[in-house]
Amino acid sequence: AILAIVKEMQDVYHGHGASATNVLKGVFALVLLAVNLTLQFCILTFIASHVVQPAVYRIQKDYQSFHQESFDEHGVFQPDMWRHYDRKNELCQIGMTSRFFYCVLLFVWVTSMLAEFRASAQLIHQVAQMPLCHQGQDMLRMDEEETISIIALTRRTRMLMYCFVCIPKIGISMYLLVLGCQWLSATTSFEALVVNTMAMEFVLHVDELLYEAFLPPSYRRQVEDINFFIQERQPTPEEEEWREWSTYVKAFCFLLVGFA
Questions:
Q1: Which pLDDT score, from 0 to 100, does residue 219 have?
Q2: For the whole model, what pTM was predicted?
Q3: Backbone φ, ψ for residue 140 (5° rounding)
Q4: pLDDT for the residue 66
Q5: If we measure between CA atoms, which residue out of 196, 200, 214 comes closest to residue 34?
Q6: Comparison of pLDDT for 260 and 50, the residue scoring more
Q7: How do residues 26-35 score in pLDDT, each as one tens digit?
Q8: Residue 142 — pLDDT band, cuts 50, 70, 90?
Q9: Neighbours of 39 (CB within 10 A)
Q10: Cα 164 to Cα 204: distance, rounded to the nearest angstrom
Q11: pLDDT for res 28
Q12: Would the pLDDT of 56 be above 70?
């Protein structure tokens, strides 16, 4: 999508080297982007309404039944009533009943989502750091090995990348994080807790599936080679040390968020 927005669509829009091939490349990549966003949105919506909400409702009903049949009218737990409670085996299989195991898998899930957040934040930072240019042909540079580098962005291109790449990526990750935590909390067995921890992440890989399945190999090579080139002055030793410290502070903050 980045290559389509920056290169092909700008060539077509400004008429610099535009051809039927440019149009085909750009339109095809943007169609795949639209398909990816549509699939991810539909899958998340279906998971929320048909998987997570029913699971949460079942757990709430189970705990309501447990409190009704194992506590007296004053809210005091009654061991005799608990011994005769016929669903205690099912209740004891709920993932949250093993706090350590539940917290470990929840930490793994949150950590996998934090990796997505960091990748999204890095992309947003790179887009924001790119210099401003006024012509589409000034955005790209190709070296002797035909490696494409993005050296600047027009205002239109920057907004397109925010709207169609960065913001959807962040939004999908946040929504999936919330849904995953709810689903794991409503898991009714330890086996399902392990499986569910891995199952939700497939939504994030829909774009990779489309990329590998449908994009031609030549275009994939261009996508793999493209990069953001930000020209910076040589930092002083003090600035280099501060930059290294700041990276570890950010990493430590992400670790704290994962534990929280």
A1: 72
A2: 0.76
A3: -120, 155
A4: 82
A5: 214
A6: 50
A7: 777 788 888 8
A8: confident
A9: 15
A10: 16
A11: 79
A12: yes
Three-state SS for the chain is CHHHHHHHHHHHHHCCCCCHHHHHHHHHHHHHHHHHHHHHHHHHHHHHHHHHHHHHHHHHHHHHHHHHHHECCCCCECHHHHHCCCCHHHHHCCHHHCHHHHHHHHHHHHHHHHHHHHHHHHHHHHHHHCCECCCHHHCEEECCCCCEEECCECHHHHHHHHHHHHHHHHHHHHHHHHHHHHHHHCCCCHHHHHHHHHHHHHHHHHHHHHHHHHCCHHHHHHHHHCEECCCCCCCCHHHHHHHHHHHHHHHHHHHHHHHC
Residues written for the chain: 260
| Res. 248: pLDDT tops 80 | no
CB neighbour list of residue 33: distance below 8 Å, 6 or more residues apart: 1, 4, 164, 165
Residue 231 structure tokens = 């020209």
**156, 139 Cβ separation under 8 angstroms:** no
Residue type for position 35: V
Name the residue with tokens 């709430």. 60
